[in-house]
Design a protein that fits this description.
By secondary structure, this protein is an alpha/beta fold. It contains eight helices and seven strands; from the N terminus they run αββαβαβαβαβαβαα. α5 packs across α8. It starts with a helix and ends in a 12-residue tail after the last helix.
Length: 217
C-alpha cells in the first residue's frame, strides 16, 4: 500500500467501526496475493471503500476520467490505485487499464449492476463485467454489502448512522466459459458475457447476513 492508501485505509476502518458499527464476514476468502476480481452489489458511494477496508491487500478502483483533470483530486485518486474510466465505464481504454492491473497481479473492485440501486434491491447485472471476466484469468469473488443503502443511498445528500456489513463469498472459476469464448461465434460470445454477469449476481444474492462470529483482518 502507498502511504496515502494506508492512511485512507486506516481512517476508513475507524469510520466504519465507530460510526456504522460494521461487521465483516469471510475476508479470508479473498486471495492475499495475485490477480482477483471482487464483484459487489452497489447501493452507495460507501461500497468501494467498505469492500477495500475489510481486507488487508490493496485494491484498484474505478473512477470517472473527468475527476483526474483536477490536480489534487487526480493525485489522490492515483494514490488510491484508481483506474480512470469513461462515464459508463465501458470504454476500451478503461478495459485495457483494468486488464493491465490484473495482469500485474492486482485486485480490482467491480459492480455488475453498473450503478447504485435506487430502491435498495439488487438490480440486474450488465454484461460489461462478463467481458472483463472472460478477457482475464483472475478468480472472481462475489461480495455483498448490507446497510449502505440505508446509511447513504442515492436519495440522501449526507450519510447517517446505520449498521453496515460486508460478506465475501467463495471464489468463482469461469474456466469453462473462458475456454468456450475463444472459439465461439460473436452471438454466443455476447451470451457468455451476460451469462457470467447473471451468475455473479446470483452468487451475490445468495450471500445473506448471518449471526456467525464477525471476522476482522
Amino acid at each position: 500500500m502507498s502511504f496515502i492508501y494506508l492512511i485512507t485505509w486506516h481512517l476508513g476502518r475507524w469510520v466504519f467501526a465507530s460510526c456504522f458499527r460494521w461487521r465483516v464476514f469471510h475476508p479470508e476468502r479473498v486471495p492475499p496475493t495475485g490477480a482477483v476480481i471482487l464483484a459487489a452489489n452497489h447501493a452507495s458511494y460507501m461500497d468501494p471503500p467498505l469492500v477495500g477496508c475489510a481486507i488487508t491487500r490493496p485494491l484498484n478502483y474505478l473512477a470517472r476520467e473527468s475527476l483526474f483533470r483536477f490536480p489534487v483530486v487526480g493525485a489522490y485518486l492515483r494514490a488510491l490505485n484508481a483506474v480512470p474510466v469513461d462515464r459508463d465505464g465501458g470504454g476500451a481504454a478503461g478495459l485495457r487499464a483494468i486488464l493491465d492491473r490484473l495482469l500485474q497481479g492486482g485486485g480490482i473492485v467491480l459492480f455488475p449492476e453498473g450503478t447504485r440501486t435506487s430502491d435498495g434491491r439488487l438490480q440486474p447485472a450488465r454484461s460489461g463485467i462478463g467481458l472483463t471476466v472472460i478477457k482475464s484469468t483472475a478468480p472472481v469473488v462475489p461480495v455483498r454489502v448490507f446497510g449502505t443503502f440505508e446509511a447513504w443511498g442515492r436519495h440522501q445528500c449526507c450519510p447517517r448512522p446505520h449498521r453496515i456489513a460486508v460478506k465475501y463469498g467463495p471464489p468463482m472459476d469461469f474456466a469453462a466459459l473462458r475456454a468456450e469464448a475463444k472459439t465461439c461465434s460473436k452471438v454466443r460470445l455476447k451470451e457468455i458475457y451476460q451469462q457470467v454477469a447473471d451468475e455473479l449476481m446470483a452468487a451475490i444474492a445468495k450471500l445473506e447476513p448471518c449471526e456467525e462470529k464477525t471476522t476482522f483482518p
